[in-house]
Write a structure and sequence with these properties.
Structural class: mainly beta
Oligomer: single chain
Shape: elongated
Distance between the termini: 28 Å
Order of helices and strands: EEEEE
Strand order of the largest sheet: 1-2-3-4-5
Helix content: under 10%
Number of strands: 5
Length: 90
């Protein structure tokens, strides 16, 4: 989109319990500018990823996002999500 600028930063800590299991906890901040409207979102997450075989991974996690500034007032200030992802490297 035109006149859209995004800045992102964060920190993730990961730990391996075994060769097939990994845990991650982290924080991310996203700042977006849409013309004259600004948006700032803080996201905290916790996830676990399991290696099913050499090419398949299954990730389950929880994510909480708090909007300090919302580009659109109809966006809820706080959002929680459960995530389930199947990943395959390419």
């Amino acid at each position: 989109q035109q006149n859209r600028r995004t800045r992102r930063g964060g920190l993730t800590l990961s730990a391996n319990q075994s060769d097939n299991l990994q845990y991650s906890v982290g924080y991310r901040v996203d700042a977006e500018r849409f013309g004259e409207r600004n948006g700032i979102a803080h996201t905290f997450f916790l996830s676990t990823e399991r290696k099913l075989d050499s090419e398949n991974f299954l990730m389950f996690g929880f994510q909480w996002t708090h909007y300090e500034r919302r580009p659109d007032p109809s966006i809820p200030r706080d959002q929680q999500r459960l995530l389930l992802e199947w990943r395959k490297p390419f």
